[in-house]
Design brief:
Two copies of one chain form a homodimer.
Chain A (H helix, E strand, L loop, with lengths): L1 E2 L2 H14 L7 H8 L3 H13 L3 E4 L5 E4 L8 H8 L8 E3 L6 H26 L3 H6 L2 H8 L11
Antiparallel strand pairs in A: 2-3
Helix pairs in contact in A: 1-4, 2-3, 4-5
Chain B binds a DNA duplex (30 and 30 nucleotides) through helix 3.
Chain lengths: 155, 155
DNA sequence: CTTTCATGTAACTATCATTGTTACATGAAA
DNA sequence: TTTCATGTAACAATGATAGTTACATGAAAG
């Protein structure tokens, strides 16, 4: 089961950086880990660098490092930095159909999307990059009282 | 702002069907409403027909009708019938990278996705097609105590 | 029974986003 | 000065979705 998604890729890289030795990891080395291309790594990390989550250095001994202690970086921060969204009714063009029914449905779906995303953000906020690198099961059990994240929370 | 998404399209169609007169609506007529093609309409409704949400009839006077009273059809049912998913770490191939870190991250993201989707399903369950067709603001106010669905719920 | 209407479906094209690749410029350390 | 590694642009490859055309199927109207 090969997997995808910007967030998965970014967190995968960050987890490698978090457990890495002092030396920075190069895009080429990370590309091997992720079975992909160095340019893909750089593209994935560009936004995270602007957000102050990772730093990069050129030349000999250069590469990528986490900009702060992994315990101070939440998954929420990464999610936001990537610009990910839950959106059940995404905007597609600037045309505007003008249909009132469509607008009504879209507004409702936007609301539900926002609610679902708010919950997601709260969950992501409880997990740090350090938790992720450590396996983070303890943290999950603390938070939800269950090792199964699948269980629906009491809202 | 032209909008997209299977769920939006399906609900838009269903709302038109819910407010339609007794006569079935043809794919061609619906295509005009949605600024699209009759075949797109048929494709969008095929899954809903199998799920028993709409029925179709051929020939003269044929077209699409809701299979049950709109008040008995929840948005959740539509969402499920369409096979929509919130998935932060979708499966892409059968290769399997074998990286333990990736698997750990993916499992966590799956859990969060499932939680967010569970919340979404609970919300969709409270809205019926009839609510949608009527404007459904009253129903929303009843449920959440606010006319702004954007507000984060007390979990 | 033939015509007309409308769905059902396959096949193909177009469009768009993502990914992979190549190439080259920039900057830092050896 | 050479080598390493990022930064970025440009382009091809891939995959998903949407749009289109064409034709078969079935039902009602005449």
């Amino acid at each position: 089961m090969k997997r995808d998604g910007k967030l998965l890729i970014a967190l995968h890289i960050l987890a490698h950086l978090a457990v890495a030795p002092v030396r920075p990891l190069t895009s080429a080395a990370l590309a091997v880990c992720l079975c992909t291309n160095p340019v893909v790594i750089r593209r994935a990390l560009a936004g995270l660098r602007e957000a102050g989550i990772v730093t990069s250095a050129k030349g000999h001994g250069g590469g990528w490092t986490v900009a702060r202690p992994p315990a101070t970086i939440s998954l929420r921060e990464v999610y936001v930095a990537l610009g990910e969204r839950i959106d059940l009714a995404p905007v597609r063009g600037s045309a505007g159909s003008g249909c009132l029914i469509e607008a009504t449905v879209a507004r409702a779906l936007d609301g539900f999307s926002a609610e679902a995303e708010a919950l997601l953000l709260r969950r992501l906020d409880t997990i740090s990059l350090a938790d992720l690198a450590a396996g983070f099961h303890q943290r999950l059990i603390e938070q939800t009282g269950s090792s199964h994240v699948m269980s629906a929370p009491a809202e």
